[in-house]
Amino acid sequence: MESLTLKGQLVYLRALEPEDLDLVFKIENDEDLWELTTTLTPFSKFLLKQYIKNSHKDIYEAKQLRLVICRASDDEALGMIDLFDFDPRNQRAGLGILIFSTSDRGKGYGAEALDLITRYSFKHLNVHQLYANILEENKPSIKLFEKQGFEAVGLKKEWTLIGGTFKNEYLYQLIHKNVH
């Protein structure tokens, strides 16, 4: 990874390390986050350890890239940012981001991480477009992605079943020509 591409003023993005097991375990098993990640069951530490062990696989092989968002000032892991459903033929990928602690949200960490992964995707992965699926009620994520230049291109009505209620989900898209 090129340090200039994945390092900003507030955060930097790095590959998963074995030491991230507890953070990944905490994120993947937090039921309050399951509606954002479409997780339905808890993950064991054993399975997550295997996932981290295999996370070195090339994005072209795994079709996914998960990076840890770290605060530049103290190297603390703040969350994760993922490229998923990587499709090199059509030059697109899905994008998801999570700043784990609510006390770290709204401080610019997510915005900078999103900017870093966007630039990385366009420059190094030759991606033409990125997309994100965001629940209609997730106003902070909508604001974050719109600030980065993503546009809502569709509303999937009653798309996701959460707690017995179907919820609407926006499809956001950023096409490379829109990036300055």
UniProtKB/TrEMBL annotation:
Entry-linked Pfam families: Acetyltransf_3
Signal peptide, first to last residue: none
Domain N-acetyltransferase stretches: 11-177
InterPro entries, per database record: Acyl_CoA_acyltransferase (IPR016181), GNAT_dom (IPR000182)
Keywords per UniProt: Transferase
Entries under SUPFAM superfamilies matching the protein: Acyl-CoA N-acyltransferases (Nat) (SSF55729)
GO MF term (any one): acyltransferase activity, transferring groups other than amino-acyl groups
Name of the protein: Diamine N-acetyltransferase
